[in-house]
Amino acid sequence: MGARPFASARRGEAKGRAPNVIGKCLMQQRRGATIAIAGLRKEFGEGRERVLALDGIDLTIAAGEFCCIVGPSGCGKSTLLRILAGLDHATSGAIDVDAKGWPVANAMVFQESGLFPWMNIEKNVGFGLMTRGVAAVEAGKRVDAALRLVGLTRFRHHYPHQLSGGMRQRGAIARAFVTDPGMLLMDEPFAALDAQNRTILQAELVRIWEETGKTVVYITHSIEEALLLGDRTVVMTAQPGRIKEIIDIPFRHPRNVMELSSTAEFGALKLSIWRILEDEVMRARAEIDG
Amino acid sequence: MRERSSKLNERLLYLASPIGLLAVWQLLLMLGFGDRRFIPAPSDIAVRFWELTESGELAWHTAVTLWRVLAGFVIGAVPAVAVGLLMAMFRPARIFFDPLIAALMPIPKVALMPLLLLAFGFGDASKIALVAIAVFFPVIVNTYAGAANIDRIYWDVAKNFGASTYVMFTRVVFFGALPLIFAGLKIALAVSFVVLVAAEFVASKTGIGYLIWNSWELLQVDYMFVGIVVIGILGLISAVAFQEIERKVIPWKAP
User: Fold this and answer.
1) What does the pLDDT average to over B127-155?
2) Residues of A with CB under 8 A from a CB of B
């Protein structure tokens, strides 16, 4: 990668879905990064205090896949995401991310938006471009497009504390998309929102993902959310986190989040995943209660 | 309408206590309680205030004091903020500076005045240095606390979005610490008036501190009060100005 990773903006020819105007301005028409995780293990602490958080994680995520990870609290799913994001290191095992040709390997959306309170929305969204030295004109165009994508154009000069939780989360999504990452890492991004806002944002995320075709790794504790959004759902065990089962989600795209959740197949699949998850949740609870 | 009148009432009430105090003070002295040579009435102080203002003497002393506070404040606060942020970002910096601060902070800064006279002479420099030293400690301690307590998520975001150390320093840690930096600056401002007036008592022929001390030596109590009033006004104005600056600079914390 050169000194100016964004300089060669228009590379790779259109392939797959016809994008809308915003999508065209913001993204390259290619599928996202591929991720291969093999034998990943993560321990925290030393000696007697040592805790095994993740063990024997083998997972391959295809380019452009929307992969959801569900598991009981404390199963290390956030840790897995942090390792993928480069914010934490694995104790052993290998992660191979192929994000060739992408200006940025990954961008993360955190549970609480993590927008800087001292920057207005525009500055927040452009943060990942500023840090990488993208020229102001180019950065401005991309920020405009990202703000339009999430519907925050009118609020670009507002500060985060002046916006609702849902709007802040949109800002965080725009901040991640604007860097044009090979993969998008999302850590329960809608968990803190009320039900209505969550549904709206889920629908928007599905739309944006369908438009841009990025690889998404999405952590959630909600089976329903995993089914609505994902191509596959990885169910994890309670501590130490291992992969218990990987379930293909059969619903076709484009999806309508509201309609899908009221179908019978959806209910049946939700129940069967809950059966898989149930033991783990109970086990996690038993350990917490002592 | 009612709301406006109640606001007006509150404002009147706000002024009632100082005006009431002055009125009682004036009245008692006019009724012959107390000796006006030692306890001047507010009206006497006002007359002296006017005399000193007309002669230009008061403006001169005020300007000198303000200059010393301002220069010392900037010279002390800027490095304090920089070092405080460095301490929060780099462990070695923290380990290096921590014992130094712990040892030097409890020393009453006025005790350094003779040393500073030795080093910088009798002019402005020694007073400015004293203010700078007094300002340095509350600012550095607050800056460090502010930067060290920045929510972990902001470090993660900055790192994940490719921030260099420089960007981290100027766009994240500095602003994250800013609310507490301001708290430190406010304390420092009050402290700088305290140490400067004390220094001007003994080691200066100019400044409001000198005016007060000189008047005491000549037993011109009414002049003394003029000096005290001026310090009070300077403190009030600077506090209000600070509040306005804070509102501008930290819009995300402003009420």
Assistant:
1) 94
2) 82, 85-87, 104, 106-108, 110, 112, 114, 116-119, 127-128, 130-132, 159-161, 175, 179
